[in-house]
Amino acid sequence: MTALFPDINTQYCINARDLSMSRGENVLFEGLTASVTSGDVLWVQGNNGIGKTTLLQAFAGLSRPDFGAISWIQEDAETAPKNLIAYQPHQSFAKPTLTTLEDLAFWASIYGVQDLIELTLNSVGLAAKGSVPTQKLSAGQRRRLALAKLIISRKPIWVMDEPSAAMDTDGMALIDSLIEKHINRGGSAIIASHDATRKLSSNTRILTLRASA
Amino acid sequence: MINYLANPVRFLKFSKVATPVFGVLAGITMVLGLYLALIKSPPAIEHGESVRMMYTHVPAAWSAMMAYAALTTASVVSFIWRHPLADSAAKSFAVPGTAFTFLALVTGSLWGKPAWGTWWQWDGRMTSVLILFFIYVGYLSLWQIIPERKRAARLASILAMVGFVNIPIIKFSVEWWNTLHQPASISTPGAPGMPPEILWPLAVMMAAYSFLFGWLALRGIEADIIRNRQSKTGSKPSARAVIEAI
Amino acid sequence: MITAIVNRDLKLALRSGGAWLHGLFFFAVFIALSAIAMGGSLNVMRPFAPALIWLAVIFSAMLSFPAIFLEDYQDGNLAQLKLSGVSLMRVAIAKSISFALLSIAPLLLSIPFASLVFDIPQKTILAISLSLIIATPALTIYGVLTSAILAGRRGGFLIVLITTPFLIPLLIFGLGVVTAFQESGVGALEIRALIGLSLISIAVGIPAASAALNANLE
């Protein structure tokens, strides 16, 4: 039986140096430098529209900075984002007409871990919803499904865009406990959020995007 | 040379000199070429006075193809090295290229009326030029609908390169189709037996179109560089990042 | 991984409330409109039947092109596939297979019925079907390529404009095959030319589509 949270036995980090990014003609931020490695939690805070999602996409390798560079490093060598990053976007990417089980099973087969489907669904509290089409799930339940996809990807860095949006208190506690499990096995997380920041690992930092005067 | 000019500042310095030179050369050769073509050269035996249309048509069709070759070269550079100047160049080659293609279609049609008796014939050459026009319009429209410049440049370069591979296929298939359905249409004066009084004006007009293309392309690149710079320097970052530990 | 993507696409299509059949209805409408426009006389239409069927297939396919990547791009599935480590080349191949199965195959299966409405001999129908089957990879891949370039953007007319130059050689040699097959059987030169076009489309179109997807996801 494969473990749900296997240890991450690889040395890795992600380095952003002097990033400058823009949306259309508007420059969002300049000179942003940050680094995340095993055991780190980096909260990304800031008002709506200030560029949190753009920054997260850059960390995930889905958006190119105008200036500066991001490097994904594994065992002291540059690697592709796909080897390190699991990305939970703000919107749900579940297919509405697939059942929860089918939707998760697709990604499990992509990652080659079909034997973990049941276990993962249990771990996010969706065991009873396996045969429900994802369009009939509540917004919070869809978020839980997205968490399940993070787990099943088994990547070291979780990049999460407002994971707690539409979540109830149980859900919030679930997010924290999953992240803590992930950190304990050597993972790390970058979390954009409007919540109060919590110390989820010994090395927790807050990156605030503050509107300049 | 290309490496040296790849810097936009140096390019602007170079084009400050090169652009007027191209403009003046285009003007001189155009006046000379038009004089030779329209007044000096004799009417052809086979085509009469309408042969003079050739002096504007053939160089237009030729420059349209040359512009696409230049566009593809710039696209390859843009795709491999992601160089912004190559993006500007590709875009700036496409605009005069489209105009020359359109001019080739119009002059071809005007020439067709006396030569064929109709404004249009689905002959191999005209059909190929028409398809080239579609390719150009599709390419420029792609630039228009993608707001993010770098992404637009990359996608447009892919389209241009695939389009380039496709051009000989189109040419081959249209010519094959043409021989299948159409009897041989008019004969264009071919190069080997061309008398010097036709060859000279044609050569000068070719040069005029090439200089005109160079001038228009350089002006386009200059404008694009400046427009880019304005949009980037015009805005200050709206946020700054602060990192603190808890 | 390719089969996983194709399986999911088929499942999604079957649950789409019949949206995947719209292309087939368009095909029927195009044939009917052509017949009405041409006066409805079978004697007039018979020589044009192969051309009309080819046009109906091309236009029906073109209308389906934008949808190839639209949803997967907008809902974030393509970004997830890229991050999952599946090569975008495989994604392009999988999407080509799905498109051929869902949008082209129904048209190919309906071609024999066109023999009834145009009253053309079986040999001609066989030739038309053969030409379209050989052209299917090219027709599919150029659609996948342009859809990969335009991804989530609106541009129904633009997709027609961009794909047209690629489809013209197909149309020419496709109809060439229809004539040549009836005269000289499977050895006809045009058949080899059409196979060549499909092979070129695979060699050029799949890597280009993968590059375009990547450009839209970075």
Brief summary:
The complex is a heterotrimer of chains A (213), B (246) and C (218). Chain A is α/β, with parallel strands linked by helices and 213 residues long. Chain A is built from five helices and nine strands, in the order βββαβββαααβαββ.
Largest interface: B-C, 28 and 26 residues
The total beta strand count of chain A reads: 9
Average pLDDT number of chain A: 94
DSSP helix fraction of chain A? 25-40%
The main sheet of chain A comes to:
5 strands, parallel
Average pLDDT of chain C works out at 94
What characterizes the major β-sheet of chain C? none
Element-level helix/strand string of chain C: HHHHHHHHHH
Strand line-up in the sheet with most strands of chain A:
6-7-8-3-9
Helix vs. strand class of chain A: alpha/beta
What does the overall shape of chain A look like? globular
Q: Helix-strand pattern of chain A, N to C?
A: EEEHEEEHHHEHEE
In whole angstroms, the N-to-C terminal distance of chain C is 22 Å
What proportion of the residues of chain C is helical, as a percent range? Answer: over 70%
Description:
Chain A is an alpha/beta fold and 213 residues long. Helices cover 27% and strands 31% of the residues of chain A. The longest helix of chain A has 16 residues, at 169-184. Chain A is globular, with a radius of gyration of 17 Å. Chain B is mainly alpha-helical and 246 residues long. Chain B has a single domain, classed as Four Helix Bundle (Hemerythrin (Met), subunit A) (Up-down Bundle). Chain C starts with a helix and ends with a helix. Chains in contact: A-B, A-C, B-C. Strand 9 of chain A pairs antiparallel with strand 1 (239-245) of chain B, so a sheet runs across the interface.
